[in-house]
Design goal:
The chain is of the alpha+beta class. The protein folds into 2 domains: 100-301, Distorted Sandwich (Beta-galactosidase, Chain A, domain 5); 305-548 and 559-712, GH92 mannosidase domain (GH92 mannosidase fold). Helix content is 26%, strand content 22%. The chain has 18 helices and 29 strands. The chain has a 10-stranded antiparallel β-sheet. A hairpin with a 2-residue loop joins β11 and β12 (192-199).
Amino acid sequence: MFEHVDPFIGTEQTSLPPASGLAATWWWPKPQVGNTHPGATYPLGMVSACAYSGAYPTGYGRYDLSTEGQPPVLHDRQVASGFTHFQQSGTGAIRKYYNYFRVTPMLGPLDDLGQTWDVVDEEASPGYYAATLSSGIRCEVTVGPKSAVHRYTFPAHHDARLVIDFSLGGLDIPYGRTVPLRAHLGSVAPGVAEGEIVVEGAPLAVRVECDAPLWRQMLWYDRRLMPGGTRLDFDRIRPTTLRPFGLMWAGPTEPGQVVELRFGFSLRGVDQARETLARECGDGPRAFDLRRDRTEAVWREHLDKVAVDTPSSDRRTVLATALYHSLVKPCLAPDESPFWPTPGPFAFDLSTMWDIYRTQLPLLTALVPDRAVELANALLQIAEEEGNLPIGYRMARGADRFSRQGSALAHTFLADLCSIGLPGVDWDWALVHMHDDLRRTYGEEFLLRGRAHPISHTLDLAFGYWCSAIVAARVGDLALVQQFRPLAARWVNAFGPDGLLVDSTYYEGGRWNYSFRLMHDMAARIALAGGDDAFVALLDRFFGYGAEPVVQPGLRPDADELLAGYGLDRFEGLNNEPDMEAPWAYMYAGRPDRTAEVVHAIVQHQFGTGRGGLPGNDDSGGLSSWYVWATLGLFPVAGQNLFLVNAPAWREARIDVGGRPLTVETTGFVEPEPGGPAQYVQSVHLDGEPLDRPYLTGGELHGGGRLLIGLGPEPSGWGTVHRPPSAPAPQPPAGVPPSVRLDRT
């Protein structure tokens, strides 16, 4: 799959073929752009590197800040002022935006620093990014887990230079800059410098080496050189007193002369940054090719975990790129926590947990279970040191934990790991923090009043108690299981007599978008709506069956246009993520045919090739991983150890599930196409045995095997009788005496 990845997908405004049929009735409120970047990345690594224009929200590209509709243009063409590190991936607004240590190759004076050059040629593949600037300089960058290597090819010039700006961070939009609080920078040897900047409370250290031995090496401040200077120290920096500062190498170049820069990064000081650079890039010059080859090999290993049979190179490209985007974040940085001294797992860039917990974290658990366990332990370590399981977590210190977006979302991830039985997590320790976290922020209101507003938190917390009961049952804490069961049942308090959530405030969306979440007791949920037919009628209205096509928001839509759109109470076509589970809710009402139709319409209309190939923010891989699962004919019910089965979009697929192959084969398959009919499941066999139920357990999926799905052009009776399971709460393991109660105080 490596050769089919196109990292440019999602970097520009959505540009998909006109939607038809059901897809034409969906309304997209969020910005119509994927917000990805094509820079060099490492699977779940700490570092990324890309061309920097200051655009929203990654630092790459052409667009200004936007919250709805078409993105406004900041640059009318692709430009760059240099190359930065630590970009976000597919997010929307998350306050600050990294982009530290900008490297600018120049042929002019230092006064020109900050100007932009046209990007006249770009190339990208997993682990590699290259661009030629209109100055004539060719720029290439690759990364390791905690390092980056740049390679610049210069034209002939009497005084070329490489300038590293230690003061720059963030974006070139109002309130988008990141100002370092403190900074220290020093030349330690010819071609070698070390330094540290403290940004949003996080100390980020760097060791940088340049292999141009005949060039001059100088520090600079406020665009003025400091010949002979060896250190810059700033103990307190305010936005009003900040002047740019950094490091520069300069000298004459012959045509085609190559200069290499190597960066080692650490959140624990320059000594660790120095060790990282030596370990990942070696001790000498010309490390670029070696580092690129190593990173490419790791990407190939990860991307080869999914393979499909398709005659369409475009569709293979969309899948390969979706898989790639699913493996970029979060950033795993073992032994790098800057906030507590103990070694062990650490993670950041959990910037959209409210999106990735449904699809991306189950995909990581399936494909790279060892990294999923590492992430789980990192989350628990954060809770140990900071007092809560984060809803989001960045390379920043403070209370910016995104609590308004959701509650108890890490609980779903932990419950899946526990149910599958992956080794490496101390579940007694996990249960302490899961229980404690449920009583924080909105959890207090939930305990006192039976529900919390925003009302979506009521669903989060009730499900969090259900997930915690799974862990309590595993460790034999019967008292906690019995305590959690009635609390898990409080999800019913969120719904009104019309079968939808009660009026409340909502984060991104409305009550219709959140009303079809896959709760742990869907049988009771459907009964609350009036039964199968009434529940299906609500879903049909939501998905636009029988509705007229809609017009999508344009540039800077006004309040009336947005109000009218939200008044449709319509599925948002994965332009926004709160309702990404909703297509599978039909299966709990015995209508897998409807799931097949909606998923087919999404897959065929909402994803494509080219820079405009995503319908909305990729949200750290949450959107892309939805596509991976959906096209495989599987969908994870997060936290419930279930995978719903639907018609796949590939004749045959293979998934490496933790080292065990799972093949998904079909009979009666017809290549899908936009505007064409959906296919419906007629029969399913798992390892040769008929499967009447429309789901696999987590144990079955993680055990590997052969899934054979028979398809046909008309709905069948398959999946209409045996529904996915509904349960009020887990029971403790058999044989655990009622008196067992572990002391967790």
